[in-house]
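Need tokens for this chain, all 385 residues.
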Amino acid sequence: MKYNFDIETDRKNTNSLKWDIAEGELPMWVADMDFKAATEIIEAIRKRTEQGVFGYNIVPDIWYEAYQTWWHKYHGLHIEKEWLVFCTGVVPAISSAVRKFTTPGENVLVQTPVYNIFFNSIVNNGRNVAESPLGYYDNKYFIDFDRLERDLSNPQTTMMILCNPHNPTGNIWDRETLARIGELCDRYHVTVFSDEIHCDLTAPGLEYIPFASVSEICRKISITAIAPTKAFNLAGLQTAAVVVPDENLRHKMWRALNTDEVAEPNTFAVEAAVAAFTKGRPWLEELREYIQGNKEFAARYIKKELPRLSLIQTEATYLLWIDCGKLTDTSLEFADLIRKTTGLYLSEGSQYGGNGNQFVRMNVACPRKYVEDGMRRLKQGIIKL
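Here are the structure tokens for all 385 residues:
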């Protein structure tokens, strides 16, 4: 392999959200990789830094071309230049969309368990979270379409936030599933905001399907958020995009982002994104293989050493979704006890809604050494419990 993902990078005392922790703790919670960015991206940022002037920036044609080429080549989605709008992040875009396309007191539907920050974007803006829980059977998640239709048919439900691929379950939604979601949302006049930030972190050999690529209906009713930040570990650079094929939706989304002042790039946002999408593919392919190896190690360890836990077989993301239902029905308490007794810092599943109360989430986008340590600590904590 050209890239060495076993190298450890000391992130302590760097104002890191993930690593600003007590001595001896091992953080495997927030979705933030511990790998250095691809050398090609670092070089692009270094070159921009050497100029020494950090003024206001525009979005050049090369930025549009990078997104268009990447999504067409790797995800089969044709994107017209005018469909793309720069934004500083997926979450800011979601919050802007919630404010623009819904009114206070209306419902925004999410399929739980799901990324917990969706709840913040809804509740903080005076809207109601409409949970439509995923079905769960035999360690697999699926969409209960009868329940989904009932929830979408509520006249107070005016937006759906789709997580595609799904965080934390790791599901890649197939074309038929996405088409049915689109048809239901169209029938009940619900705008779809599709968060596709994890799309480049599928398991080797698997690819996701962009919601907007499925049908004319899906294209017409949707806003899609995409970014290099999750796959290339660039979240701190605040660089993302929304894809909005429908002209009327696009105008409103453009107005929303500009009104909220989240539509202008910082000095490094364009350079990093362009480098990722034009030069980062080899790094990404090796990363996916490495993460898959981490997942397989964790699966073997849990099966052999922690048989009372069940690991969901994820198709995407670098996150493990671990069913602890045989040990606890209070994941917050469970995760707190594990942290206090072993220093292993996991995300409690209860914050994701749905049946998350019996789960914990573990981030394995880190050197294999950390995964091995994390598994040993998890076993140690369970023994003590």
